[in-house]
Amino acid sequence: MTAVLLLGFGLLLMAIGMPVAFAIGIAGFSYFLLPDTFLPTSIAVQRIVSSTQSFPLLAVPLFIFIGHLMNASGITPRLVHLSTLLAGWMSGGLAQASIVLSTLMGGVSGSAVADAAMQSRVLGKSMIKGGYSPGFTGAVLSVGGLITATIPPSIGLILYGYLGEVSIGRLFIAGLVPGFLLMVALMVTTYIVSKRRGYLPVRENLPTGSEVLKALRSSIWAILFPVWLLVGIRYGLFTPSEAGAFAVAYALFIGCVIHREMGIKEILNAMRASVRDIGMIMLIIMFSGIIGYVVSFERVPQTIAELTLGVFSSQITLLLTLAVLLIFLGMLLEATVVVMLLTPILVPVIKAAGVDPVHFGLLMMTLVTFGGMTPPVGISMYTVCGILRCSFYDYSRELLPFALAVFAVVLGIIFFPSVVLFLPNLLLG
């Protein structure tokens, strides 16, 4: 009970505007100051330090750095051209291209917010000038970033695997099919809305084979990036953490040698941006180590597992209930924060219920990331609306059909676990 109250205290501190890392740290440290705790405060300090002493955690700063390097290496404009070529012939051509681009960028940036911000700057103004409403433009560009939550290398999946002691390699491979299903669902929704409103294609005809091959050759290094990662992990060439180091070397080689568009200035800018992002995330991870210890010490996962197993008669009912909880929390907190706070609590619960943690990990990342695209505190929503100068009301109204498409995919993931699990089971056993 005490641990739950401390989590509530942390959420209250975030609600009044305190930085997330300090809100978590203060809430966790307060536990050791309670009169009936009888634990030395030195344990809290030890947990802060020990939470950083993890080899799998090396993947987080490396993949954040790779996202910034890829954007500076000349890959983005090539992927934009390929996406427009592949999807520009459909109704709502630019919107369709943005969704395909999100799928391709998912294997590059690893961040939904970064993907939405990049696309808003690259495609947003062109879409509005082409007759798309600002609300529709913002909704498409924001929710397209949801695909990034599942396509490897997703930063959220790395954190979930590290905190829940789940195979990151299996999570990476499991994310491919849900990512593809999200792309199809969003493209179908975009087509229906565009057809109804008269949003035109940007190409008159289907692309020819030679055009596609030419665009593929230009973008081949970006397209091969997630393939190298999955092949390397599958055949044991490197661990997910070592894959991050490989990815950094890969991006430097592409930008400096192949495309020759990245010099010392671009590398330094990518390093500065990465240091800001890494500092923020690592500070949260360090302080969340205190919360993790308190939650474990108070036996919160075991207590919740006993309660839920007694209340819920089936795995489906449990997952549907947790899905509602995750959407609600995702609407209030940044996805990374939700993952770091709840993974140590929920993974033991779903394991006790017989749910595969890889299956739950993809469900969790999809839902909490989507929460960041909805009112009232969605970071992706604020990012996109700020860049496009779109009203939150118009954005929220236009988001509704895309939300229905996302929920349809989520229900498919819940009711048919094999959608997520068959590929990692096939490749990794």
UniProtKB/TrEMBL annotation:
Q: Name one GO cellular component term.
A: plasma membrane
Picking any one GO molecular function of the record gives: transmembrane transporter activity
Tell me what topology the record assigns in the membrane: Multi-pass membrane protein
Task: Please tell me where this protein is predominantly located.
Answer: membrane
Where found, per UniProt? Cell inner membrane
UniProt entry keywords in alphabetical sequence: Cell inner membrane, Cell membrane, Membrane, Transmembrane, Transmembrane helix
Does the keyword Ion transport belong to this entry? no
Stretches assigned to the TRAP C4-dicarboxylate transport system permease DctM subunit domain: 11-418
Q: Where are the transmembrane segments?
A: 6-34, 55-75, 95-118, 139-162, 168-194, 215-237, 243-262, 274-295, 307-328, 335-354, 360-387, 399-423
What name does this protein carry? TRAP C4-dicarboxylate transport system permease DctM subunit domain-containing protein
| Organism of provenance | marine sediment metagenome
